[in-house]
Amino acid sequence: MNSVSTTPLPPATLKDAAVEVKGVNVVFHRRGSEPYQAVTNLSFTIPQGTVFCLLGPNGSGKTTTINVLNGLLRPTGGDVRVSGLDPTRDRRELLRRIALVPQETALYNELTGAENLEFHAKYYGVAPREVRDRIAHVLELVGLTDRATHRTGTYSGGMQRRLALARALLTDPEVLFLDEPTLGVDVQSRQAIWERIEQLADEGKTVLLTTNYMEEADALGREVHIIDHGATVAHGTQAELKAMVQGSRVVLEFAAPERADRARAVLDAVSPTTVPSEGSLSIAVPRGVETVAFLRQVLDEINAVGGVTGFRFSEPSLQDVFLHFTGRALRD
Amino acid sequence: MRSIWALAGKDLTVTRRSPTFLAITVLVPLIFVGLYALLVQVSATSPVAIAQEGTGPHSQRMVQVLRDMSSVDGEFFEIRTTDPDEARRMFDDGEIGAVLTIPADFDQRVEAGRPVAVPLQVFNINSDGTKNFQLRAEHAVRQFAADGGGSLATVKETSAFSEDMRITVYLGTGLLMFAILYASMVNTGTLVAREWEERTAKPLVLSPVGNAPFVLGKWLAAAVQTVVSMVGVLLGLAWLLDYPVSSLGWNSLLAMIVLFAYGAGFGALIGVALRKSLPMIPICVVLAVTHFFVSGYESYLRGFAHGGAVEGLWQATHWAPMGLLTDQMRFEVSGLKTVSLDWSAMGWTLAAAATLTTLAVVRMRRALSFSQGQ
């Protein structure tokens, strides 16, 4: 792994901040093994009414961070405020203002969609006279009114995710934590969930979502915070992050995936490559090099491999940002 | 309060639509009841035959004595035949365990006041069964002598209780205690464990209502399920063991509620520690069977308590409050009014239940704070 670049931290306090995280550390102590540092000096601020993406690979500390924010986990060090409240000290009050969609949907497969929502509303203390209207409203919001009387065990993964989102909205929270909300979801459902999330932000709700999908962060994150091994890699708006990776990328299309694989083996020695889609290859044009000379070298290298059917320049993506700061692709 | 009802209602709906574990809480105790029902019958009555070679009035009276001998648990002998040839054939074929022969000169010898032997032929594959045949045959001879004005000494017995307790009542109440503990452990444990197993625990713990509705809601649902389980078990006890279910009164009900609380506390702790339903079944069987032998069927353990660890264990049963609660039910079912409510035993059992439940809640908080991504 390359050395991690440190970027300036966000402003310490925003007047309209919904979430403030300052210098948080989380260390797990388990009997018989070395202490494990899950989160290291994490800091970020989320303004109200925005969608904030916590982007990182599996095991990077995203869920641990959410557990700190909702008070399930007391940080080893640092300071946390959510809606102006300390999640540990003011937990009960905080839980009235936030909602969580956990990584797993946490639905009861033996109950129908409506029964799941009804149970949740009653358990969370929604006023009895409002329960029915709220359920109808959130079901409509996520487009599941027609399937409300079906058992959730019969739902597709995407429908279950949408129902979990509906459940979180039952209590009309100020801040929503969505832990990998589109994990394992088909493209159509993913698009529907993204639209709902954007709509929520437009209505003034603050959304923190964790993801390891670059395209999700690209589509939703007005601000993106990239973490790896529990530590900040980079953060900022998408434009700011992409601007950090100066230079372009060259995307090569191949006639067959095997050709792309062979070309990757050759080109990785020239500059790090990624695979944007099957049968294609993206290679970074390093900063400070003479572009024409670099392209000539690339073309010479792949000449032996052959099978190139297309060639274009592309602007940096978040994938490139991650690659730039960590020296590896997000899913490596 | 609405949260408690909501959780209990949800759990009961889930159980109604997926009743496997509830069925297990009825089936396992019923299998025990069924097995013991068979063993009790074998133990209470012995199938024998009488080879009645003598035909006079004394021979007839001897047969009648053998027929009439009984205890509260049933007749001592189930006499299959008195025909000598049939009796020997049945013995040779293994259909009966013993043949008592009343010899042809039985009447003449009794009339003459001369000694007479009553041969007992035993299939002595089992010392316990052999002992039963011997004792009962000797008892019959003494009884015959006493009825006829003989000079044999008779035993004068003093008892701890005013009436004998039927083995089916003694054993059945122990099995009832086993069933309550098992059902409450499995019902509570699986209701708790399934929230982790199906990864639904997090939203429950993140509710602003706190932990109390979670614990109480689970208890309420488990209580309803345990009542359903117990209805099945009591029907089985009545049918298979002729257990006098209608004699269960308030003392028994109180004891059952306290035993439920204890079992539920145990179940919650195991459920939250394992966070898996299936391994709970054998663990709860082992725990409930252990309680059954230590607290529900103490006389069985007493039979082996001749020094060593078993004697220590048997002595410990006197301190186990669950045993005293089982006796509380036993005495009520037997109609023995001499023993009333045992408040001390109920208090200690409730204290154990509270301790187990507290440990379960502490464990639950820890389980959720480090949840490996859940």
Structural write-up:
The complex is a heterodimer of chains A (332) and B (374). With 332 residues, chain A is of the alpha/beta class. Chain A folds into two domains: 17-241, Rossmann fold, CATH 3.40.50; 246-315, Lrp/AsnC effector binding domain/regulation of amino acid metabolism (RAM) domain (Alpha-Beta Plaits), CATH 3.30.70. Chain A is 35% helix and 25% strand. Chain A is built from eleven helices and 13 strands. In chain A, the strands form three sheets. A six-stranded mixed β-sheet of chain A has the order 5-6-7-3-8-9, with helices on both faces. In chain A, strands 11-12-10-13 form a four-stranded antiparallel β-sheet, with helices on one face. A three-stranded antiparallel β-sheet of chain A has the order 2-1-4, covered by helices on one side. In chain A, helix 3 (113-123) packs across helix 4, helix 4 (128-141) packs across helix 5 (157-169) and helix 5 (157-169) packs parallel to helix 6. The longest helix of chain A has 16 residues, at 187-202. Chain A is globular. Residues 1-14 of chain A have low confidence and may be disordered. Chain B has helices at 2-17, 20-44, 57-68, 84-92, 106-112, 127-147, 167-197, 201-205, 212-241, 250-274, 280-296, 298-302, 308-317, 321-334, 343-369; strands at 46-52, 70-71, 74-75, 77-79, 98-102, 120-122. In chain B, helix 2 packs antiparallel against helix 7, helix 7 (167-197) crosses helix 14 and helix 10 runs antiparallel to helix 14 (321-334). In chain B, the strands form two sheets. A four-stranded mixed β-sheet of chain B has the order 4-1-5-6, with helices on both faces. Chain B has a two-stranded antiparallel sheet with strand order 2-3. With 374 residues, chain B is mainly alpha-helical. Chain B starts with a helix and ends in a 5-residue tail after the last helix. Chain B has two domains: 2-39 and 163-369, no CATH class; 47-147, 3-Layer(aba) Sandwich (abc type-2 transporter like fold). The chains are: A alpha/beta (332), B mainly alpha (374). Chain A binds chain B through residues 28, 63, 67, 70, 72-74, 92-93, 95-96, 100, 102-104, 106-111, 115, 119-120, 122-125, 128, 167, and chain B through 2-3, 5-7, 9-10, 13-14, 17-18, 198-210, 213, 368-371, 373-374.
